[in-house]
Design a protein that fits this description.
By secondary structure, this protein is α+β, with helices and mostly antiparallel strands. The protein has three domains: about 140 residues, ATPase, nucleotide binding domain (Nucleotidyltransferase, domain 5), CATH 3.30.420.40; about 120 residues, Nucleotidyltransferase, domain 5; about 110 residues, Sandwich (Substrate Binding Domain Of DNAk, Chain A, domain 1). About 25% of the residues lie in helices and about 40% in strands. It contains nine helices and 24 strands. The strands form six sheets. The chain has a six-stranded mixed β-sheet, with helices on one face. β11 and β12 form a beta hairpin.
């Protein structure tokens, strides 16, 4: 049975999917419909067709519905947004696996442009219900997919500055990627700006609308790319499935630059990231710093074999949603725990965070064991919880604990 590495770009209006090793990408509206005649669900264009025939009731904007914990009533039955999103994913994955010869989902990476906790938790719940365990599911943002896709290309394509325009029904964004290299590793810095000049793709159906959209993109290209040197420029999103509607923009961005159009770039980047999880060590050894990623390394000083060493708990470049760390240590003459936070961009601006162990029992030196657990509420807010674990039968554990949120 073929092992499938699947990337899905899941958005409110349109969803795209790609599988490693296959040139075809799937693209369909993010809508779901239940037929009136039977409890039968359809997604994408089929959902629109049955609705237009009067045979079904359609629900759209599934991510937004999940984010606000909303509901939709279909034929007298109330469904939570998460339920409908789960059905949509089930139908989508079934379609993909069937077209790939009923292969096994080995790794699944879902890219979203809104990394709200409720959406992320909802996707984990939905995937779990479909039999995709947490170790095979990963959620990321569009920017990281952009980085993975670009860095999978030849080095001369990303050796300098890389720009990208992403155009969809939801938004118009400009991305920029810079890569720095040293003897130890490659660091990829990527960020984006959501542009106010966004427009509905429906305007491209008329000649006047297409000319207006072309002028808008020309103005954006002039603002972001004038007098800059680029190794390459990418065009992503459904809006760039064709480029003949924007002759002025294409002439402008192609002037002494290499330009690549890939409408399903985010889905393909997600699939490449899915493939990377199969390797013990990343096939592309880089640290990615972008939306959804932690920008600092967090360490704690411990005594190991008589030598003081900084032990990493959180590494810069980890996904904040997946970053977890647990460590048990024995206290030696101190009533606090101290952490060192080192920003990746400005390591000289490292800072110390000291958390007093208020309310913890007083014991002799080396007779208190504590458990330190770190997690994140978002990419800038770290949560530290320290719990008393006692020390054998002589000093039983207590209920003493401390929890603190730290901005990093």
């Amino acid at each position: 049975m073929e092992k499938l590495m699947i990337g899905i770009d899941l958005c409110d209006v349109y969803t795209q999917a790609a599988v490693v090793g296959r040139e075809t990408a799937w693209s369909l509206p993010t809508v779901i419909c239940r037929k009136k005649s039977a409890e039968e669900w359809h997604i994408g264009e089929d959902a629109y067709r049955y609705t237009l025939l009067g045979e079904g009731v359609i629900v759209d904007k599934l991510l937004s519905l999940t984010a606000k914990d909303g509901t939709a009533t279909i034929q007298g039955v109330k469904y939570r947004g998460m339920e409908l999103l789960g059905i949509f994913l089930e139908k989508l994955l079934t379609m993909i696996t069937e077209e790939c010869g009923n292969g096994e989902i080995c790794q699944l990476v879902i890219a979203v442009n809104n990394m709200e906790m409720r959406i992320l938790d909802g996707l984990v719940t939905c995937a779990g219900a479909l039999g995709v365990s947490e170790d095979r599911l990963h959620i990321t943002g569009h920017t990281e997919c952009f980085v993975y896709y670009v860095l999978s290309q030849r080095r001369d394509i990303w050796g300098g500055q890389v720009g990208m325009f992403s155009l969809s029904d939801e938004d118009l964004r400009y991305y920029e990627l810079k890569v720095s290299r040293n003897a130890r590793r490659i660091t990829a810095w990527a960020e984006y700006e959501e542009l106010e000049e966004s427009f509905s793709l429906n305007v491209l159906d008329t000649a006047p609308g297409a000319r207006m959209a072309d002028r808008i993109l020309c103005a954006c290209a002039d603002r972001f790319m004038k007098k800059k040197l680029f190794s390459s420029v990418f065009l992503a999103g459904k809006g760039f499935a064709k480029t003949d509607w924007a002759p002025g923009f294409m002439k402008q961005v192609c002037n002494r630059r290499r330009v690549f159009a890939e409408p399903a770039l985010f889905a393909r980047g997600a699939a490449l990231k899915a493939e990377d999880y199969l390797h013990e060590k990343t096939s592309v050894p880089f640290v990615c710093l972008c939306e959804g990623k932690i920008k600092s390394t967090v360490t704690i000083e411990v005594l190991r074999r008589g030598v003081k060493v900084q032990t990493p708990l959180i590494q810069a470049g980890e996904s904040w949603y997946e970053a977890r760390s647990v460590l048990e240590v024995i206290l030696d003459g101190q009533d606090y725990v101290e952490f060192t936070i080192v920003p990746e961009q400005e390591p000289k601006q490292k800072r110390l965070v000291r958390i007093p162990l208020e309310g913890f029992p007083s014991r002799p030196d080396k007779a208190s064991r504590i458990r330190i657990a770190l997690g994140f509420l978002d990419e800038k807010t770290m949560v530290i919880k320290i719990v008393d674990r006692g020390f054998g039968e002589l000093f039983p554990r207590t209920d003493a604990s401390v929890r603190q949120e730290v901005m990093i």
